[in-house]
Design brief:
61 strands; 671 residues; seven-stranded mixed sheet; rod-shaped; 0% helix; mainly beta; single chain
């Protein structure tokens, strides 16, 4: 092998005779072709490269190649058993090319060689990363690509100084660099990729990262108080990237349950002129940018307004002793206070009524206040408003004269009244728990209070027997005590009559005897009597059940009909028992009602008049004109009583006495 070719020989024949014979002889040795050069080479894109293919064999082989060559690279048979692979590979042709080289010379089989042409190419960026804008906390990815052979590696870099310098990002060696949750500190960073292989490197364009943040409220609107008609401004502000320029003010009229956009209110400051209807409204601003919204706290608007009268008090007429209520109302913010005023000179002057600071004013109708005018003054920090004047007309008809104060100060027990020697006598317990008396000859003018002494524990009662005026009380030991006078001026010392009383006594004269009623320890009604005012019979149990308090009975003699005893029962109704002989009493009969005191009774001109305090503390009356067989319905006579009433007949009229809210003694009489 390897001897193929043409060999020139000289053949010499010698036999000793003469000159040797010589012959020039050509020996041709044919040899099959063989490729003798290396089976691989490397070119670089953009750089001229050449490689010579050599062969062996005789005759001289020709060379051909098959397989794709990179652009700008050629294969040339040089005709001398060699071929040249040469050229400057074009950009983008980097890679590995597998060629088949064939040597042919007609001797034997062609020789083939599998040949590898490697074209190295420096990296070339084919895709640059794109700048991105994201919201705080979002995931962002940058992607870049590059060609080149061998396949380049990648290294992402970051610049935090506006692109002046870049630093490798540890572990960021993939075509895509991902930030899982962006932070605000990454806002303005630049990112780029550096691709590298054995030939060189290439750097991508830089990509800018913009990290935006949702709005954050920096200035909250504050609640404000103004007067209706004034302008008000609410201020707010918010930060964020991009700066949130979109703002929308909203209003709520239901304490924040629902909100409504205010048309045109799209500036950080909301200014408008207030009205009374804006009071209590809440206002807030909603800031918006590409990353979200932020809402301010709610600010409350208080719109103060001058009081405006919404309800005028109405003029009223009432019977003497009735209570009259005037009502007024006004709007305004803050809610106005009220002060009632009264005028007794037809509105020329007005005086504030102490304690009258509610929207209603209750007045006890009495002759002294007839024609008085009343008005309410509503006031707040903004101003005041005054109602119209309302006039009170007191009717002194309705059968009674109207309440008149007799002064004094009673201590929680009812008075007693009786007619004696043509004068009207009134007894009452004073603040020292002694008995006091005053009397009147005309029912209008009374003597000063006269102290009768004693230490009494109940309301008194009085009766006239055989020209002597007797007064009975319960003492502090719950026994019955008595004093009497024969001239209405000088009274005997107190005399103890015994017994155990649980109520005040009630006394009258019947069939020539002095009769006294009282509740016993068992709360039943008891009666005792005396023919001479000195010796009394035993207590007789009349039964019944009187309440523990305000149980004082009343006794009344009705000519031609007998003796009546009235009590307040355990159910607070009025009950009556009667006798025609002073011995045998009828069973208890209910007359109804709701009493809050013991009753009082008087008879004049054949009419029985029963009086008691009702549940509203007013005085109530019912009458009988048939000897107690039937009674009228209860009728309110008004007033505010703080004790049970007392009643007696005087000069053809019924006189009624009771303590008022000032604990003074008041009286009125039928007309």
């Amino acid at each position: 092998a390897g001897t193929g070719g043409t060999h020139q020989l000289t053949l010499t024949a010698h036999n000793g005779i003469g000159s040797d014979a010589t012959q020039s002889f050509t020996l041709t040795v044919d040899e099959a072709p063989a490729v003798t050069s290396a089976n691989a080479t490397t070119f670089i894109v953009g750089t001229a490269g050449t490689f010579t293919v050599t062969t062996g064999g005789s005759p001289t082989p020709t060379l051909t190649e098959s397989g794709a060559l990179p652009a700008s690279v050629t294969f040339t048979d040089n005709g001398n058993g060699t071929a040249t692979l040469a050229g400057t590979p074009a950009p983008g042709t980097g890679g590995t090319y597998t060629l088949t080289l064939t040597a042919h010379n007609g001797v034997g089989a062609d020789a083939t060689q599998s040949f590898t042409l490697t074209v190295d190419e420096a990296p070339v960026v084919t895709a640059d990363p794109l700048s991105q804008t994201v919201c705080l906390g979002a995931t962002v990815g940058f992607t870049a690509a590059a060609s080149g052979f061998p396949v380049p590696t990648v290294q992402w870099q970051v610049s935090t100084d506006g692109g002046q310098t870049f630093t490798d990002i540890g572990g960021a060696t993939s075509p895509t660099y991902t930030i899982a949750a962006t932070t605000f500190s990454e806002r303005g960073n630049y990112y780029r990729a550096v691709f590298t292989n054995s030939v060189g490197s290439a750097t991508s364009a830089r990509a800018l990262l913009i990290v935006n943040s949702p709005p954050a409220i920096t200035t909250q609107p504050t609640s404000q108080t103004v007067t209706a008609g004034q302008a008000v401004s609410f201020f707010s502000a918010a930060s964020g990237f991009p700066v949130p320029t979109a703002v929308q003010w909203q209003v709520s009229a239901d304490n924040g349950a629902t909100w409504t956009d205010i048309p045109g209110a799209t500036h950080p400051t909301l200014t408008f002129t207030t009205a009374g209807t804006d009071n209590g409204h809440q206002y807030r601003a909603v800031y918006t940018n590409t990353c979200g919204t932020a809402t301010t706290n709610a600010a409350t608007l208080v719109v103060q307004g001058t009081p405006v009268v919404t309800t005028q008090p109405a003029s009223q007429s009432a019977n003497a002793g009735q209570r009259v209520t005037f009502t007024a109302a006004a709007s305004g913010n803050p809610a106005p206070t009220v002060q009632w005023q009264a005028s007794s000179d037809n509105g020329a002057t007005w005086t504030s009524i102490p304690g009258a600071t509610a929207t209603t004013l209750t007045v006890l109708a009495a002759p002294p206040v007839n024609g008085n005018q009343y008005r309410a003054v509503f006031t707040n920090v903004v101003g005041s408003a005054t109602t119209d004047a309302a006039t009170l007309t007191v009717n002194t008809g309705a059968g009674y004269s109207g309440w008149v104060s007799l002064g004094g100060r009673l201590t929680g027990t009812a008075p007693a009244a009786v007619t004696y020697n043509g004068a009207l006598y009134v007894f009452a317990r004073g603040t020292d728990f002694a008995l006091y008396v005053r009397h009147s000859a005309d029912g209008a003018t009374y003597t000063p209070w006269q102290r009768l002494g004693g230490l009494i524990d109940s309301a008194p009662t009085a009766a006239v027997h055989d020209g002597t005026l007797y007064v009975f009380v319960r003492g502090t030991d719950n026994a019955l005590y008595e004093t009497h006078t024969g001239d209405g001026a000088t009274y005997t010392p107190w005399r103890r009559l015994g017994g155990v009383l649980t109520s005040a006594p009630a006394a009258t004269t019947f069939q020539g005897r002095l009769v006294v009623f009282a509740a016993g320890a068992d709360h039943a009604l008891y009666v005792t009597s005396s023919a001479d005012g000195v010796a009394y019979g035993p207590w007789q149990n009349l039964g019944g059940r009187l309440p523990d308090a305000q149980a004082d009975p009343a006794a009344l003699v009705v000519s031609g009909h007998g003796l009546y005893a009235y009590v307040r029962g355990g159910d607070n109704g009025l009950y009556v028992t009667q006798t025609t002989d002073g011995v045998a009493y009828s069973g208890w009969r209910s007359l109804g009602g709701v009493l809050t005191s013991g009753p009082a009774a008087a008879s004049v001109n054949g009419t029985l008049v029963i009086l008691a305090r009702g549940s509203d503390l007013a005085l109530y009356e019912r009458r009988s004109t048939d000897g107690g067989a039937t009674y009228t319905d209860w009728r309110s006579l008004g007033g505010i009583l703080t004790t049970a009433p007392a009643a007696t007949a005087f000069q053809g009229q019924v006189y009624v006495f009771a303590a008022g809210t000032d604990d003074a003694l008041y009286t009125q009489h039928t007309r």
